[in-house]
Amino acid sequence: MEFKHRDIAYVSEDARRRAKKIKFIVLDIDGVCTNGQLYMNSLGETVKTFHVHDGIGIKTAFMADIGVGIITGRQDKCVEARMRPLGVTEYYAGYYSKLEPLSLIAKNQHISYEEMAYLGDDIIDLDPLLRVGLPCVVANACQDVKGVASIILQAKGGEGAVRELVEILLACQEKQPAPSFWIHEE
Q: Please, are residues 177 and 5 in contact by the beta-carbon 8 Å criterion?
């Protein structure tokens, strides 16, 4: 069976050129990997929902030799519980200023900012968005953040935006389409 890449006609030529260099994706959590809503249980613990398509997107990125990391302002156990089984080791929680962990990821991965994509949704994400090679935002990002993005995704946060970005990178880097990573010979 032959699979095709996602249609990326909405991605500018400049963004496609930038995407070819990306070796690592950095994700915000609230409003990107989730819909941005916080649910609190009776013990005051935060509960969040994650789209399974994004989980498969993260695993696919790893299979395609594209790293994935997290920088989030909040420290919620449910986020780490979701990200660790997916293989995310560059995990930085409790950082409202995201430059320090961004720098640590670049150092740990031996890459430049130009080789990083960042996916955000709100003004807390402006610092990393202004520094990375491929600044990306979800469809429902705030207007100020959309203004600095090279790619505005079609998906909203928590609705498969991470997967969409991974599939864009696969297409721009001329790697095999995402489904091909999940077909195995007997």
A: yes
Q: Which of 87, 68, 66, 60 is nearest to 180 (CA)?
A: 60
Map tokens 């599939």 to a residue.
167
Is pTM, for the whole model, over 0.90? Answer: yes
Looking at residue 133, the DSSP 8-state letter turns out to be S
pLDDT in tens, 133-185: 999 999 999 999 999 999 999 999 999 999 999 999 999 999 999 999 998 87
163 to each of 94, 107, 131, 158, 173, how far by Cα in Å? 24, 25, 22, 10, 15
Distance CA 140, CA 175 (A): 28
Spatial contact of 116 and 25, defined as CB atoms under 8 Å apart: yes
- Per-residue pLDDT tens over the stretch 54-84: 999 999 999 999 999 999 999 888 889 899 9
